[in-house]
């Protein structure tokens, strides 16, 4: 039996164009603060994805 894996991202539009525009806006808005802090405050690495295998939340 082959397992089925899914990755669910946090709520959002689900639309790539909208997500790209939102990220660009966040990066522009937070750029100065990120430079001062020496860390990033926005981006997909800051999301909290959910991982599922055969419907079970890991």
Describe the protein's architecture and organization:
The protein is an alpha+beta fold and 58 residues long. It has a three-stranded antiparallel beta sheet with strand order 1-2-3, with no helix packed on it. It has one domain. It has one helix at 16-37; strands at 5-8, 50-53, 56-57. A hairpin with a 2-residue loop joins strand 2 (50-53) and strand 3.
Strands in their spatial order, largest beta sheet: 1-2-3
Fraction of residues in helix: 25-40%
C-alpha Rg (nearest Å): 15 Å
Give the CA-CA distance, first to last residue. 19 Å
Order of helices and strands: EHEE
Overall mean pLDDT: 85
Q: Characterize the main sheet.
A: 3 strands, antiparallel
Strand elements, count = 3
The portion of residues forming beta strands comes to 15-25%
Structural class: alpha+beta
Quick gist of this model?
This protein has 58 residues and is an alpha+beta fold. It is built from one helix and three strands; from the N terminus they run βαββ.
Question: Which key phrases capture this entry?
Answer:
38% helix; 1 helix; 3 strands; 58 residues; alpha+beta; elongated; 3-stranded antiparallel β-sheet
Helices and strands, with pairings:
Blueprint (H helix, E strand, L loop, with lengths): L4 E4 L7 H22 L12 E4 L2 E2 L1
Antiparallel strand pairs: 1-2, 2-3
């Amino acid at each position: 039996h082959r397992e089925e894996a899914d990755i669910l991202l946090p709520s959002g539009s689900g639309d790539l164009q909208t997500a790209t525009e939102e990220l660009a806006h966040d990066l522009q808005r937070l750029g100065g603060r990120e430079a001062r802090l020496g860390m990033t405050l926005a981006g997909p690495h800051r999301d909290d994805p959910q991982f599922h295998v055969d419907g079970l939340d890991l």
